[in-house]
């Protein structure tokens, strides 16, 4: 058979392939190979058909034959790279795209392919280098092949969101009806803190494909971040109507219900999300937060334990479970978790404060003082740390004239925080300005009625003013809220100035402790 006759088979095969008649195309290319087995282009053409039919192993055999016959056939390496990419064999794909580039340094499609593989391998800087090179060589062709879209993905992964947005906008010029691309652009706007700009792209995507669950989910997330919770819930409902197996959508709807303070609906959705995906650790964190608000501390501790079963090095879960153990009156377990948190993150100031509180329940004032001071030294931006360090010190030594000034200084770290009001209130009390002291403590109570600090110190001030019933009520409330007994030590201050109250009321508190 002549070369011209082989070309005729290949031409007819190509026409059949373009028409979608793959069976006849395979027949023509096979005849060409049968009659001229040394012609590389026939194997190459048949490989393309096999690839279109997702018969990757057959395609690879033909491509291998092409390379044996013609080792410098760059397109063969490129096509084999595509097949390996489709098979998720990224290292082999990368090798073949690199071979294509080595044979032709201006091979734009191989550079784009290599960028695509680097993206999948999460080697984003390498992806950007290859895509930059492709766009520099031939912007239009590279853009048509998806270089802007791929580079936008790499920028988004690196949180270079403005660059990602610009690339996704450029990519839409080539594929204005690409629903995935519209979603990626919307997500980049959302992640950059502008979910309001994302809405129009999600709307375009839904106009193109109205029955796309992930677009409803993404638009719902934009609405949620804009605190348009009802619209968010409607979109999440629609997504779940289309696909009720999406754990992320249940989670996002739960967050929206949480935003509306519809606690039971939020809990139900978090639980459904976890039933679908028990390893979805973010859901445990948010469900635990609801349990804490409900004072269901054991359930919250259980959720943190589940996180740790999947991620033993999760510092926040370890710290949070340790905190739950404090609430559950298990200071020993709390210290174990907080010790581990500090091992994992030695500069974690809050872990020292909470460990100091656990030591207070064990009446280890020396260790509690050490932890609270260290916490304040690590992070002076939180009034809580400084306040607790000062209170612990006041349990050892009667405050001197410098203490009110220190408390005022601590309060300046967070002037509107609960602990700042306590600091100012105690400072005023030590300076005998009782009315101002009570006012500051009332501000603290308005922020949080369930912390023992304000109740205890309001009891101290009321006792100093001879308001015994109010003092008793406040002190009983502090005890009911499980104040560490050692923090009742300042009641001894009342022994001289208010001996009757001390003997009749303060001593029973101290003895009970």
Automatic annotation (TrEMBL):
GO cellular component: cell outer membrane
Protein name, entry field: Uncharacterized protein
Any one GO biological process: receptor-mediated virion attachment to host cell
A Pfam family it matches: TPR_2
Keyword tRNA processing part of the UniProt annotation: no
The keyword Nucleus is annotated on this UniProt entry: no
UniProtKB keywords: Repeat, TPR repeat
InterPro entries, sorted: TPR-like_helical_dom_sf, TPR_2, TPR_rpt, Ycf3
Source taxon at top rank: Bacteria
Sequence intervals crossing the membrane: none
SUPFAM superfamilies (UniProt xref): TPR-like
PANTHER family: TETRATRICOPEPTIDE REPEAT PROTEIN 6, UDP-N-ACETYLGLUCOSAMINE--PEPTIDE N-ACETYLGLUCOSAMINYLTRANSFERASE SPINDLY-RELATED
Ranges occupied by TPR repeats: 6-39, 40-73, 74-107, 108-141, 145-178, 179-212, 213-246, 247-280, 281-314, 315-348
């Amino acid at each position: 058979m002549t070369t011209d006759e082989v070309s005729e088979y290949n031409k007819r095969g190509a026409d059949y392939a373009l028409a979608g008649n793959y069976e006849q195309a395979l027949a023509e290319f096979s005849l060409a190979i049968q009659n001229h087995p040394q012609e590389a282009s026939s194997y190459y053409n048949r490989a393309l058909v096999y690839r279109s039919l997702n018969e990757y192993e057959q395609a690879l055999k033909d491509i291998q034959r092409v390379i044996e016959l013609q080792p410098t056939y760059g397109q063969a390496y490129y096509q084999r790279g595509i097949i390996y990419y489709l098979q998720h064999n990224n290292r082999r794909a990368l090798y073949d795209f690199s071979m294509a580039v080595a044979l032709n340094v201006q091979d734009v499609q191989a550079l784009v392919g290599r960028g695509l593989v680097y993206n999948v391998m999460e080697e984003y800087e390498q992806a950007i280098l290859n895509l930059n090179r492709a766009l520099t060589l031939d912007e239009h062709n590279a853009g048509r092949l998806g270089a802007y879209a791929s580079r936008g993905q790499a920028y988004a992964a690196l949180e270079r969101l403005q660059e990602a947005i610009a690339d996704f906008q450029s990519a839409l010029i080539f594929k204005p009806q690409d629903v995935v691309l519209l979603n990626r652009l919307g997500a980049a706007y959302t992640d950059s803190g502008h979910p309001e700009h994302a809405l129009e792209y999600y709307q375009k995507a839904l106009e193109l494909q109205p029955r796309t669950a992930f677009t409803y989910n993404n638009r719902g997330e934009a609405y949620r971040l804009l605190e348009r919770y009802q619209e968010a819930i409607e979109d999440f409902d629609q997504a779940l109507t289309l696909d009720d197996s999406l754990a992320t959508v249940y989670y996002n709807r739960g967050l929206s219900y949480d935003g509306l303070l519809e606690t039971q609906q939020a809990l139900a959705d978090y639980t459904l999300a976890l039933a679908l995906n028990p390893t979805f650790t973010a859901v445990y964190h948010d469900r635990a937060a609801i349990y804490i608000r409900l004072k269901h501390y054991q359930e919250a501790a259980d959720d943190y334990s589940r996180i740790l079963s999947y991620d033993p090095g999760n510092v926040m879960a370890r710290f949070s479970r340790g905190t739950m153990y404090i609430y559950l009156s298990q200071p020993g377990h709390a210290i174990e978790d907080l010790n581990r948190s500090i091992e994992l993150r030695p500069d974690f100031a809050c872990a020292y404060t909470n460990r100091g509180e656990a030591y207070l329940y064990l009446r280890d004032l020396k260790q509690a003082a050490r932890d609270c001071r260290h916490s304040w030294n690590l992070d002076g931006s939180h009034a809580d740390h400084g306040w607790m360090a000062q209170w612990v010190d006041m349990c050892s030594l009667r405050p001197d004239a410098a203490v009110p000034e220190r408390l005022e200084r601590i309060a300046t770290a967070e002037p509107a925080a609960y602990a700042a009001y306590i600091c100012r209130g105690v400072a005023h009390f030590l300076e005998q300005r009782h009315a101002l002291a009570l006012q500051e403590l009332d501000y603290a109570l308005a922020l949080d009625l369930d912390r023992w600090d304000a109740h205890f110190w309001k009891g101290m001030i009321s006792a100093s003013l001879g308001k015994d019933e109010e003092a008793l009520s406040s002190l009983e409330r502090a005890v009911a809220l499980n104040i560490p007994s050692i923090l009742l030590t300042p009641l001894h201050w009342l022994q001289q100035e208010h001996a009757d109250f001390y003997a009749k009321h303060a001593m029973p508190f101290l003895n009970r402790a």
